């Protein structure tokens, strides 16, 4: 007997993206559950070409996963595949999904994503392989609905698929900044405030510096060239905007300036520069192992 699969998609104003997504699953899905978040464009009109199971729900840009969970509750298939409008399946992945859910011992599967950002597949840093748990048994998985970056949680053992889905991620710089501002940092800030955590003035320097070092050097963002550099700087900017929003909402722009502010600030930048220098040499040693001892000496003497 065939194992039935429901594809659940939640979308808002995605007329430019949604058709390619729906086309990629039309021959795989036994049913498509489409949750429209009160789109103002032709998203629903396009979706009607592929499914009659369309539900209209209020849009909540900070709690995006609420409507995904609603869509899961409407699915009838034994398995559910959760997709976003900017994601597409390739034929190899569709075939692997069919094979994997047939008599599977797993409760869910993680799927790697090829993130296409500013027209290029980003192969390093946090962008690859970017495993996401998207395929799961009905009734065994849901989003916690606490954070925009949260992962779908599944009760039971989880496997991994090999074939990737295509994620047509950020198309423009404006789109990146808009999502950073209106969705991601808003959710991050809200959860930070709920946790009752504190911030300190030097976090305005430490958080961005740490994010840049992590994405560009430690996670090898430099291997993606100019794209990797720009995205690493954007990650640092993300951390800075997050800090500034917490300062605004928690501290009401309270003056947190310490005594000897200039001296303290210079000291923080010197610490950041020291970390960057350390990772420059770590990276050089990793990339040029033949002259590793030379870079070790240079790092030790601080040149």
- Unreliable runs, pLDDT <50, ≥5 residues? none
Which architecture of the largest domain would the CATH scheme give at its second level?
Answer: Alpha-Beta Complex
What is the CATH third-level topology name of the largest domain?
A: Spore Coat Polysaccharide Biosynthesis Protein SpsA, Chain A
Total separate domains = 2
Estimate percent helicity. 40-55%
- End-to-end CA span: 68 Å
- Portion of residues in beta strands equals 15-25%
Helix count equals 9
Could you give me the name of the CATH homologous superfamily of the largest domain? Spore Coat Polysaccharide Biosynthesis Protein SpsA, Chain A
Calculate Rg over CA atoms.
22 Å
- Global morphology: globular
Task: Let me know the largest β-sheet.
Answer: 7 strands, mixed
Give the class from helix and strand content and strand pairing.
alpha/beta
Biggest sheet, strands in spatial order?
A: 3-2-1-4-9-6-12
Average pLDDT over all residues: 95
> What top-tier CATH class of the largest domain fits best?
Alpha Beta
The H/E string reads EHEHEHEEHEEEEEEEEHHHHH
Query: Could you tell me the number of beta strands?
Result: 13
If you had to describe this structure to a student in words, what would you say it looks like?
It is a single chain. With 303 residues, the chain is α/β, with parallel strands linked by helices. The protein has 2 domains: 5-168, Spore Coat Polysaccharide Biosynthesis Protein SpsA, Chain A; 173-301, no CATH class. Helices cover 45% and strands 17% of the residues. Helix 6 (203-218) packs antiparallel against helix 7 and helix 8 (261-287) packs antiparallel against helix 9 (292-301). The longest helix has 27 residues, at 225-251.
């Amino acid at each position: 007997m065939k194992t039935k699969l429901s594809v659940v998609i939640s979308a808002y104003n995605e007329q430019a993206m949604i058709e390619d997504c729906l086309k990629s699953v039309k021959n795989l899905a036994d049913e498509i559950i489409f949750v429209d978040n009160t789109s103002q464009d032709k998203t629903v009109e396009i979706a009607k070409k592929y499914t009659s199971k369309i539900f209209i729900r209020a849009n909540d840009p900070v709690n995006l996963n609420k409507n995904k969970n609603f869509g899961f509750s409407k699915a009838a298939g034994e398995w559910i595949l959760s997709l976003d409008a900017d994601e597409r399946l390739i034929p190899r992945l569709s075939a692997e999904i069919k094979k994997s859910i047939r008599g599977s011992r797993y409760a869910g599967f993680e799927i790697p994503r090829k993130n296409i950002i500013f027209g290029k597949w980003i192969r390093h840093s946090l962008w690859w392989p970017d495993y996401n748990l998207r395929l799961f048994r009905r009734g065994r998985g849901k989003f916690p609905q606490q954070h925009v970056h949260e992962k779908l949680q599944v009760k039971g053992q989880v496997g991994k698929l090999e074939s990737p889905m295509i994620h047509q991620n950020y198309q423009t710089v404006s789109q990146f900044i808009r999502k950073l501002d209106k969705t991601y940092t808003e959710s991050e800030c809200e959860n930070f405030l709920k946790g009752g955590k504190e911030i300190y003035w030097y976090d305005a320097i430490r958080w961005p510096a740490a994010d840049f070092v992590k994405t560009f050097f430690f996670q090898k963002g430099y291997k993606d060239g100019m794209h990797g550099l720009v995205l690493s700087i954007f990650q640092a900017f993300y951390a800075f905007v997050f800090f500034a929003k917490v300062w605004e909402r928690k501290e009401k722009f309270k003056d947190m300036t310490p005594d000897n502010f200039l001296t303290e600030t210079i000291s923080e930048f010197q610490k950041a520069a020291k970390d960057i220098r350390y990772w420059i040499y770590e990276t050089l040693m990793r990339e040029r192992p033949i002259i590793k001892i030379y870079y070790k000496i240079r790092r030790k003497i601080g040149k």
